[in-house]
Input
Amino acid sequence: MVDQTDLSNVDRIVNKYHGEEGTLIQILLDVQNEYNWLPEGALRRIGEQLGVAFSEVYRTASFYKALSLTPRGRHLIRMCMGTACHVRGGPRILDKIEQALKIKAGETTRDMKFTLERVNCLGCCALGPVMVIDGEAHGNLVPVKIEKILNGYG
Output
């Protein structure tokens, strides 16, 4: 599959940093915010603009879990499976989300609406079990709440 993503905004993002040393990670984050993932063509363009080998850009992008080398849905769901969330029913909540979306953790719905990620801790232990959708925390979850919450992201 050939990546046909329009990369016209990559140059603008790279130029914002005026070629300053040590900006690769921030550039990758900004490009990901623009495209919702890091297409290979964008990584190559970043390398060309910074005078850095593609392999170095790719190595950096693949190292950080916050960066995605595969297309993600419009809404990113992060389900906490840390100790507090786990003992309070996190696995049941994750099962319900997977059932509602018809995907497993680590996958994206066919309509590219949702990507579901399983994370170790979101730092909201008092709210457990908790999931974060597009930066918004939903806590004290029970299975019957899941469909209503997901429908709110119509």
